[in-house]
Amino acid sequence: MSSHTPMQLFISTKAQHGAAAMQPAAGLTPPVTPTIESDHSSVRGFTASRAVTSTPSGGHAVAASSPLLFCDQLEYQLDHLGRPKEFGRGLWSIVRMAFISPRADTIVRPFTPPSSPTPASRVVAVKSPARRDGHAVLQAEALTLTRIYSVPGSERHIIHFHGYIADSNSIVMSAVPLSLSKYIEEKAHLAEKNKTTRNMFEPVQGMAQWQDLAKKLITSLSWLHSHAMIIHGDIKPHNILLKPRMSIDDDANSTEFAYEPLFADFSSAHPITSSETAPGGAQTALTPPFTAPEILSALLASPDTPPTPGSDVFSLAVTLLAAATGDLLLYPRQRCLLMSKNGHQVIEFVQSGQNGTRVPKNGDVEKILRPAVLKNPDERINPDVWLNNFFPESNSLFQT
Ligand SMILES: Nc1ncnc2c1ncn2[C@@H]1O[C@H](COP(=O)(O)OP(=O)(O)OP(=O)(O)O)[C@@H](O)[C@H]1O
Ligand SMILES: [Mg+2]
């Protein structure tokens, strides 16, 4: 875990053995959920033939009762010591590198996702449980991804989902090795090296690039809430992956953000519709300072507190604030939890800090983020309005 990684806290919203205690990530013990054992010693495997029966319907998600299954052959990539290569690790999982190649006897799937033809062999990321109580979490995440993936346009907003391997509770996704957190650290490093009295009042990647990133992420959040009808529940720079864009000019002064940001890690996601409950195993993740203050406080009183559309809006605003300043921690580590409970003051706090010049008072960054961090979640700006007010040129929301 890098020194810039914020502390994580997790509380199960589906606790099977009583309420979970709120603990720092290191050494924490989330509630144990009954799980199926999987065989991680295998570095090669292929999966079953059954697939989910949901079909795209009117641009909205269809509730799936079983996850889309992964039907192709998978070959894990090994390093020079014979260990599987890893893309990363999270609290629940290890994400490994593998190649996917269609089996000769590939079965026709009843659900055909809106994807391009499969090349003969390509690299994928396989997310597998890192601990026994991660199995139910990944199963719930696979259900959520199945649901989102049934909505047309998902490939422009979330990580491409290839399917679920039931035997090992693993999720197969397209490989996108660069996270927004890594990108922010790199840009912060460069900006510090090239700091001048002119550019020190701009976001670390420059104002035009920051605004394009903001527009893209707000568009995706709007799509997630109003089309997929899903609350992400754990938006932060570490859970956003950056896919290089194909048709971008190489000009270093280009105003276009060079990547498609994609939401990933739906282990804390919840459906928006009141008639549905989160899949069993769903978690409410807390990563101060990105978690909305009302969720932090409520979780202390009741571990069943789910995230809300307003809490996602808050988390995205703080993510964009971190992207502007280049500082992923935002608050001093020792006071992070305490200060996160007053997260509605995050802009003032950042402005008074070391990187405050990058968010000038009444400047564009503040104007765009202010309505998204209001204390009262009901008063926070709705993503559609957010987009229309600040990026009116994107008159058709979901075109890219
Ligand atoms: N599709 C992908 N391609 C490449 N790397 C990935 C991919 N998905 C995840 N990763 C890497 O693996 C890490 C862990 O993945 P993820 O955040 O989904 O796991 P998690 O156990 O749910 O984490 P958390 O601790 O945030 O709950 C990510 O931070 C990222 O670096
Ligand atoms: Mg994560």
From TrEMBL:
Pfam families hit by this protein: Pkinase
Gene3D superfamilies: Transferase(Phosphotransferase) domain 1
Record-annotated Protein kinase domain positions: 81-391
InterPro entries: Kinase-like_dom_sf, Prot_kinase_dom, Ser/Thr_kinase_AS
Domain of life: Eukaryota
Name recorded for this polypeptide: Kinase-like domain-containing protein
Native organism: Aspergillus pseudoustus
Origin organism lineage: Eukaryota, Fungi, Dikarya, Ascomycota, Pezizomycotina
